[in-house]
User: What shape does this take?
Amino acid sequence: MSIDWSWIGDHTDDLTSLTLSHLQAALTAVFFGLLISLPLAVVAHRIRPLRGFLLGVSNVLFTIPSIAIFVLLLPVSGLTRTTTVIGLTVYTLVVLLRNTVEGLDSVPARTKEAARAMGTRPLRTLLTVEFPLALPVIMAGVRIATVMSISLVSVATYIGDGGLGQLFTDGFQRDFPTPVIVGVVLTILLAVVADALLVALQYVLTPWRRRRA
Amino acid sequence: MFELFKNLGTWLTSGGSWSGSDGIAHRLAEHLQYSLLATLVAAAIGLPLGLLIGHTGKGAFLAINLSSFGRALPTVGLVVLVFLAGGLSMLPVYVALVALAVPAIVTNTYAGMTAVDPDVKDAARGQGMRGHQVLFQVELPLALPLIMTGLRLALIQVVATATIAAYVSFGGLGRYVFDGLAQRDLVQVLGGAVLVAVVAVTLDLLLSTLQRLLSRHRAA
Amino acid sequence: MIQFDAVHKRFPNGTTAVHDLSLEMPEGGVTVLVGSSGCGKTTTLRMINRMVEPTSGTIKVGGRDVTRQDAAELRRSIGYVIQQAGLFPHRTVLDNIATVPLLLGHGRRRARARAAELLETVGLTADAGRRYPHQLSGGQQQRVGVARALAADPPVLLMDEPFGAVDPVVRTQLQDELLRLQKELSKTIVFVTHDVDEAVRLGDQIAIFRTGGHLVQCAAPAELLARPADDFVAGFLGAERGLKLLSLQTLAAVPQGPAPEGGAWTLVLDEARKPLHWAPKDPKDAEIPVRPLRDGDSLLAALDESLASPTGLVARVDADGVLTGVSSRDDIHEHAGQAHTQARVAA
Assistant: This one.
């Protein structure tokens, strides 16, 4: 099995647009995942009975294979980018919900009590004390969700989308390994770079956790 | 839309769909067979590896980061690649199934091992247990909950990957999805998806219940 | 007995945990290792059963060099008790205690029978044996830890701050148990603690370490208290050294006389002639509780009670709690002074 380097040279435009499309799908899913999971996590964290229910449902959803989720959305939103993003969001939502709840759980009760004793209102405590302290665990969730998303976008190739995933189906149909290899390499690269950037972001956002120089 | 669900219901429940070599019963059996076998092989590789790294502490970097690396791999790409590279044959795909399941087992086994109370390990050594006795009599039993979680996660992963593998001519429930897409038969596609989803969720539920039953006497 | 000869322990990161230690721990006695954190006492203990390997020097247990023996087998002949007990959470209490006998190849039945014996020895019920460690209290878990260490009847017992994680009341009970066990079994015990009072209470011999692993002084408690080698030791023993000395002396020698009649206070007894409380002449005033003391109780307790008693008289009782007489504050104080002088001279 060998790589046809000239093919790569000939298709740089296509590769670029596929990569960008791929990235866009993944990041949109993470964005919506955060948007929904953050408030949901606060609810799950504060209201005991809902917590079990929400985490239980999300565990079930996470167990379902991605191809099944994409396919089951077809009657709803057809062979469009919307289906891809909704499908991916289901997964990012699950991961982010789990991690955010865990992050909020990890904030020491004493710290919250101290804030309350100083007269801080609940919403302000949430925004200025709980979330910052929960950030490391939440960021870990964002990293996992992002890497997972980038990997899952390719599965959407079966519903006509797929970003870099299209290289896989293309390569399979033509019995031509080059686009497949390129697709795998680019996907992994995207994931590694995204993860590294997020680690840097976490470092910037949590100065109190930096080691002494 | 309603029409669609009615047809789906009919497809799933009619006797004809269940019998025969392309019947649900057969595909289901195939899918379970691949999944269980691949998970077993992955366990045979991943468990000793995870136990060894956990017990000796060497290679921790690998154990911790293997899962992250595994998560970044695009399943479809990998499956297609091994199929093409292996001369359009089945075995490489099977290998890919196993390879994708190993990270979850190694990482969780390692996590289980490191979660064992160091005081308990110290006491075990202090009583006069040799290395292997500490491993099998103390560390392994105490790491068991997380090890079982790893096995459960690996199995679910394999069930999902096996579905994708139908794309490169594997059998199993994925066949309905891909044959359906090729024949533009949405009912078949949805049917396959529903079946796979149900299998995955049921297996997960069964195993986590089993896990909970087995850890009854542990401390909270 | 245990012998340390010029033992040195240096860790890979450069810290010297134990510096040129030569020490003898007599057979059948309790040697207590004390010092503040980082003084090397725990490292010293752990070198005896080779949980830590010495960098240089020799350690002999019963005349045999420990480094020449197989580590696992050595440990099966030495009892090991640690602060958090380290019980196996996945085994019942009984099976925990049976660990070493099983390792030695005794059959399961024999090992469990032995474990059941030991449960009783450490003051636990047979029911506790069927439970899992997490179902027991901290104090009970520590007892199981001790039982486990004694299961194979080792001549040597190593204890690393075993009573540190329990509350003071339970700690005193456990110390009592240990003293009782030691009277029965006469093991060679090496006991690590940072609590001076515990050391004075339990030790036949106390070894004080300074940070950096230096042994400063090793002597019997009375000598240590009466003649500390330097300011460090004196400081470590604390400001009330004199009083601590009194905790080592008993009431036995102090004379006693009959209880007073018709004074400002009367000692009230029950039908069995056991002291109940001090009653005031004026029935409107409050009664004052009495703490009767036996001959074996310490002079320190007597001094304390003589201050609490409204008459300065301490009630003396026999082993059954029946009144034998009272001792005056003056007599107690005089004997305390004499005891102090004797200790200083004898040391």
Remarks:
- DSSP finds ten helices and no strands in chain B.
- Chain B has one domain: 2-214.
- The mean pLDDT of chain B is 88.
